[in-house]
Design brief:
This protein has one domain: MFS general substrate transporter like domains (Growth Hormone, Chain: A, Up-down Bundle), CATH 1.20.1250. The chain is built from 16 helices and no strands. By secondary structure, it is mainly alpha-helical. The longest helix has 34 residues.
C-alpha cells in the first residue's frame, strides 16, 4: 500500500498556484539557519571550543565530535515519530517555530562559555541542545517544500534555497570577521583577552536566526490543521511510525535511497562538523584564516547549489548526486594528503561546489519520491537516514585522530563513507525521468 502511494505520487502532480511571497519566505529560512550551522557547528565555535576551551586540540576534537554525535542520534530517533504526529495534525509551522527558538536561545547562551577547561561541559551541552533544535526545525521546514513548489520546479526551488542559505552564511561570516575578529580593538568594549570577540559571534548568530526566520512564520503557506486532538495525533503518529518502519523493506527505491543517503551523509556531515577543527589542527589556521576559509567554501557552495539547481531539473536529482559524490571523493582524498595550506584552500573551494548540490538534490529527490499525505513522516525518515548513523562520522573522526595521532587519518574516514554511499545509490532505479 505504501509503495503504491509512492508510485502514484511520482506520476501525479497536483495543480497548484505557487505564491511567490510564500516561496521566497520559505527559502529565506535557509538564509536564517545557515548562519548557525556555519559559524557555530562548523567554523567558529567548533574551533574555539577545541582550541581555547578544551585542554588540548585532540581532546577538544574528540569531545566536540561526541557531543554533536549524541545530538544527531537524538534527532534521528525522534524525527520520524514527531514527523508522523505532525502529519496527523497537518500544520508544520508551530513545530518549526518551537525548535527554531530552542536553537536560538541555547546559541545565545554560548556567550557565557569562557576560554577555560571548566566551561567545556557547559559548551558541549549547549551546542548539543542548539544543534538538536536546529536540526529538528529543518526536518519540518524541508517537509514544507511541496507547499511552495511544483513538480516541475522543485529542484530549482530547493537549489536556490540552499544557495541563499550559503549566501547568508557568507554574510554572517564576513560580519564576524570584519567587525569582531579583525579589529585590533573589539567593538562594544569586548575583551579580546577573554575571547569575547569570538563568543560574541554566538549572539550575532542567535539574533540573525531569530530575525530572518520571521518571514516564514508570517508569509509562507502552511498545511491545513486537522481537527484531530494532540492525544489522538500522538497515538496515531506512533502507530504510523511503527507500521512504516515494519514495512521499510516494502518501500523499494525509497528505502534504497534512504540507506544510501544515511551513509554518504555521514561523510558530508563530518566535513561540516569537523572541517574547521581539521583546518586549525592540520594546517595551523587561526580564527581569521578559518573565517576566510569558511567564506570561501560558502561562496563556492552557494554557486554550486545555484548552478546545479538547473541541472537537477534537467538530468534528475539522482545523477546530480552521483556526479557530486564522485567529485567529493576525489577532492577529499587530495585534502587528506596535501601539505600546502594554499592548495588546501583550493581543495576546500572545490569541495564547496559539490557539497551544496548533494544536499539540495537529496531534498529534491526525497520530495519527488514521497506521497503528499506523509511528507513530514517521510522527511522524518529522511532525517533519520541522515542522522541515525551520522554520530559515527564525527565520533570515528575524533577517536581515529586520538588513536593514530593525526587528523589526516580521521579525515580519511570521510572518503570511506562517501564511497559506500555511492555504491548503494547507483542501482537506484529511475522509474521516471524526474528521478
Amino acid at each position: 500500500m505504501i509503495l503504491a502511494k509512492i508510485k502514484t505520487n511520482r506520476f501525479m502532480d497536483k495543480i497548484k498556484t505557487i505564491d511567490k511571497k510564500s516561496t521566497i519566505s520559505w527559502a529565506l529560512y535557509d538564509w536564517a539557519n545557515q548562519a548557525f550551522f556555519t559559524l557555530i557547528i562548523t567554523f567558529v565555535f567548533a574551533t574555539y571550543v577545541s582550541n581555547s576551551v578544551a585542554n588540548s586540540i585532540d581532546e577538544g576534537t574528540a569531545m566536540w565530535g561526541t557531543a554533536i554525535s549524541i545530538s544527531f542520534f537524538a534527532v534521528a530517533i525522534l524525527a520520524p515519530i514527531l514527523g508522523a504526529i505532525s502529519d496527523k495534525k497537518g500544520n508544520l509551522k508551530p513545530w518549526i517555530g518551537f525548535f527554531t527558538y530552542l536553537c536560538v536561545f541555547t546559541t545565545a547562551l554560548l556567550w557565557f562559555v569562557e576560554p577555560r577547561s571548566e566551561y567545556l561541559l557547559v559548551a558541549l551541552i549547549l551546542v548539543g541542545v542548539a544543534n538538536f533544535g536546529g536540526e529538528f526545525a529543518t526536518v519540518f521546514y524541508n517537509a514544507l517544500i511541496t507547499e511552495v513548489s511544483s513538480k516541475k520546479n522543485i529542484g530549482k526551488i530547493s537549489g536556490w534555497a540552499w544557495g541563499l542559505g550559503y549566501a547568508g552564511g557568507i554574510l554572517c561570516l564576513v560580519i564576524s570577521l570584519v567587525f569582531f575578529v579583525l579589529p585590533a580593538s573589539a567593538p562594544f568594549g569586548l575583551d579580546k583577552t577573554n575571547s569575547e570577540e569570538i563568543r560574541a559571534t554566538a549572539l550575532l548568530v542567535a539574533v540573525w536566526f531569530a530575525i530572518f526566520s520571521i518571514p516564514l512564520f508570517i508569509f509562507t503557506k502552511d498545511r491545513k490543521q486537522t481537527s484531530i486532538s494532540y492525544k489522538n495525533a500522538i497515538s496515531d503518529g506512533l502507530k504510523t511510525t511503527i507500521s512504516t518502519i515494519k514495512n521499510f523493506p516494502k518501500l523499494g527505491e525509497v528505502g534504497r535511497f534512504l540507506i544510501a543517503r544515511m551513509i554518504y551523509t555521514d561523510g558530508i556531515n563530518t566535513v561540516f562538523v569537523m572541517g574547521g577543527i581539521y583546518a586549525a589542527g592540520t594546517f595551523g589556521m587561526g580564527f581569521q584564516e578559518i573565517l576566510i576559509f569558511g567564506i570561501l567554501i560558502n561562496v563556492t557552495a552557494g554557486i554550486g547549489a545555484a548552478i546545479f539547481a538547473w541541472i537537477d531539473d534537467f538530468i534528475g536529482p539522482k545523477k546530480t548526486i552521483i556526479i557530486s559524490i564522485i567529485a567529493l571523493i576525489i577532492l577529499g582524498t587530495l585534502g587528506c594528503i596535501v601539505e600546502s595550506k594554499n592548495l588546501f584552500y583550493l581543495i576546500g573551494a572545490g569541495l564547496g561546489i559539490f557539497i551544496g548540490p548533494i544536499q539540495s538534490s537529496s531534498r529534491s529527490l526525497m520530495a519527488r519520491l514521497t506521497p503528499d499525505e506523509k511528507k513530514a513522516e517521510f522527511f522524518g525518515l529522511y532525517s533519520l537516514s541522515g542522522k541515525i548513523t551520522t554520530f559515527l562520522g564525527p565520533l570515528v573522526f575524533g577517536w581515529v585522530t586520538v588513536i593514530l595521532g593525526s587528523q589526516r587519518y580521521g579525515m580519511a574516514t570521510v572518503i570511506i563513507f562517501l564511497i559506500i554511499g555511492l555504491i548503494v545509490l547507483i542501482p537506484l532505479k529511475s522509474i521516471n525521468k524526474d528521478i
